[in-house]
Write a structure and sequence with these properties.
The longest helix has about 35 residues. Helices cover about 50% and strands about 0% of the residues. It has three helices and no strands. It is mainly alpha-helical.
Length: about 100
Protein backbone atom coordinates (compact mmCIF):
# COMPACT_ATOMS: atom_id res chain seq x y z
CA UNK A 1 0.00 0.00 0.00
CA UNK A 2 2.88 2.32 0.79
CA UNK A 3 4.28 1.64 -2.65
CA UNK A 4 0.97 2.59 -4.25
CA UNK A 5 0.80 5.84 -2.25
CA UNK A 6 4.34 6.79 -3.23
CA UNK A 7 3.60 6.05 -6.88
CA UNK A 8 0.48 8.20 -6.71
CA UNK A 9 2.42 11.07 -5.14
CA UNK A 10 5.08 10.85 -7.84
CA UNK A 11 2.44 10.91 -10.57
CA UNK A 12 0.62 13.90 -9.07
CA UNK A 13 3.74 15.91 -8.27
CA UNK A 14 4.72 18.61 -10.75
CA UNK A 15 7.66 17.67 -12.95
CA UNK A 16 11.06 18.91 -11.81
CA UNK A 17 12.34 22.10 -13.44
CA UNK A 18 13.96 21.51 -16.79
CA UNK A 19 17.73 21.46 -16.75
CA UNK A 20 19.59 23.96 -18.87
CA UNK A 21 20.08 22.59 -22.36
CA UNK A 22 23.58 22.61 -23.68
CA UNK A 23 24.21 24.44 -26.88
CA UNK A 24 24.39 22.42 -30.06
CA UNK A 25 27.80 21.67 -31.55
CA UNK A 26 27.26 24.43 -34.09
CA UNK A 27 26.69 26.92 -31.23
CA UNK A 28 22.96 27.44 -31.70
CA UNK A 29 20.50 27.16 -28.83
CA UNK A 30 17.63 24.63 -29.14
CA UNK A 31 14.31 26.27 -30.04
CA UNK A 32 12.45 25.12 -26.91
CA UNK A 33 15.02 26.72 -24.63
CA UNK A 34 15.19 29.98 -26.59
CA UNK A 35 12.12 31.67 -25.05
CA UNK A 36 12.14 32.83 -21.43
CA UNK A 37 9.94 30.79 -19.12
CA UNK A 38 9.20 28.07 -21.65
CA UNK A 39 9.26 24.54 -20.32
CA UNK A 40 9.36 21.06 -21.82
CA UNK A 41 6.03 19.29 -22.10
CA UNK A 42 5.40 16.91 -19.19
CA UNK A 43 6.57 13.33 -19.76
CA UNK A 44 2.99 12.03 -19.37
CA UNK A 45 -0.24 13.12 -21.02
CA UNK A 46 -2.52 15.45 -19.05
CA UNK A 47 -5.22 13.81 -16.96
CA UNK A 48 -8.54 13.69 -18.76
CA UNK A 49 -11.84 12.09 -17.80
CA UNK A 50 -12.39 8.62 -19.21
CA UNK A 51 -14.42 8.33 -22.36
CA UNK A 52 -17.98 7.36 -21.41
CA UNK A 53 -18.97 3.97 -22.68
CA UNK A 54 -22.24 3.28 -24.38
CA UNK A 55 -24.89 1.92 -22.03
CA UNK A 56 -25.30 -1.79 -22.28
CA UNK A 57 -28.56 -2.85 -23.80
CA UNK A 58 -30.42 -6.08 -23.27
CA UNK A 59 -28.37 -8.86 -24.72
CA UNK A 60 -29.40 -10.56 -27.91
CA UNK A 61 -28.93 -14.14 -26.69
CA UNK A 62 -31.87 -15.92 -25.08
CA UNK A 63 -31.85 -15.84 -21.26
CA UNK A 64 -30.20 -18.72 -19.48
CA UNK A 65 -31.96 -20.80 -16.86
CA UNK A 66 -29.62 -19.36 -14.22
CA UNK A 67 -30.93 -15.86 -15.07
CA UNK A 68 -34.40 -16.95 -14.03
CA UNK A 69 -33.01 -18.43 -10.81
CA UNK A 70 -31.30 -15.15 -9.88
CA UNK A 71 -34.43 -13.19 -10.78
CA UNK A 72 -36.48 -15.37 -8.43
CA UNK A 73 -33.82 -15.05 -5.72
CA UNK A 74 -33.85 -11.23 -5.99
CA UNK A 75 -37.65 -11.24 -5.84
CA UNK A 76 -37.67 -13.47 -2.74
CA UNK A 77 -35.07 -11.28 -1.06
CA UNK A 78 -37.22 -8.19 -1.73
CA UNK A 79 -40.26 -9.92 -0.25
CA UNK A 80 -38.29 -11.01 2.82
CA UNK A 81 -36.94 -7.49 3.31
CA UNK A 82 -40.42 -5.98 3.09
CA UNK A 83 -41.78 -8.55 5.56
CA UNK A 84 -38.90 -7.84 7.95
CA UNK A 85 -39.54 -4.10 7.75
CA UNK A 86 -43.26 -4.61 8.44
CA UNK A 87 -42.44 -6.78 11.48
CA UNK A 88 -39.97 -4.20 12.77
CA UNK A 89 -42.52 -1.40 12.29
CA UNK A 90 -45.12 -3.42 14.24
CA UNK A 91 -42.71 -4.07 17.11
CA UNK A 92 -41.65 -0.40 17.16
CA UNK A 93 -45.32 0.61 17.24
CA UNK A 94 -45.96 -1.68 20.23
CA UNK A 95 -42.92 -0.32 22.08
CA UNK A 96 -43.89 3.31 21.44
CA UNK A 97 -47.47 2.59 22.54
CA UNK A 98 -46.16 1.05 25.77
CA UNK A 99 -43.90 4.03 26.45
CA UNK A 100 -46.74 6.45 25.78
CA UNK A 101 -45.56 8.38 22.76
Amino acid sequence: MLRALLTLLLLLAPPPPAAARPARPDGSVPAAAAGPGERDPPPWPPLSPPVPERWRTRRDEPPLSIDLTFHLLRHLLLLARAQSQRARADSNRLILDAVGR
